[in-house]
Amino acid sequence: MITLVLDTSALLAYARLHGLAVSELVMLAGEADTLVGIPAGDLLEAHASLTAEGDTDAITYLEALVGDEEAAITVLALRGEDAVTVARLAAQMPAPGGAHAVIVSAALGVDLATYTRHGLRPPDSTVTLVEPGDR
After folding, report:
1. pTM for this predicted structure
2. Do 24 and 129 meet the contact criterion of CB atoms below 8 Å apart?
3. Which of 5, 43, 56, 72 is the most exposed place for a label (fewest CB within 10 A)?
4. CA 48 to each of CA 2, 13, 51, 53, 107: distance values in angstroms, whole numbers, following the listed order
5. Please, is 109 exposed, middle or buried when counting C-beta atoms within 10 Å of its C-beta (0-12, 13-18, 19+)?
6. From start to end of the chain, where are the E strands?
7. Structure letter (DSSP) for residue 91
8. 78: helix, coil or strand?
């Protein structure tokens, strides 16, 4: 059962080793025998961003996260019927990334973990990640 969805900003923070929040959420999901969803659209956006930056270490961490069969992770497909909705939302977002996560977390009725305060999900269904020193 998926209990949390990570958006592009959360994936980038994980891959760049920015704090521990995402790692802890994945670990807690594993301990609870639940899953953390990674929308394919957000995974592609995070990977493309890291590739454009030439950050090979971060790419390795990101690929290891989604390739680890022992991790409490599942990659969520972008379904055809959602593609246009995701594209339209992405065009309206103030920063790139996260549209697929917003749509799929709402559809599943689970929390969205993000470092971006875009306000596209109600506050009680958004886990806004803030690391110590980021306040």
Report:
1. 0.85
2. no
3. 56
4. 25, 14, 5, 9, 25
5. exposed
6. 2-6, 35-39, 73-76, 111-114, 126-128
7. H
8. coil
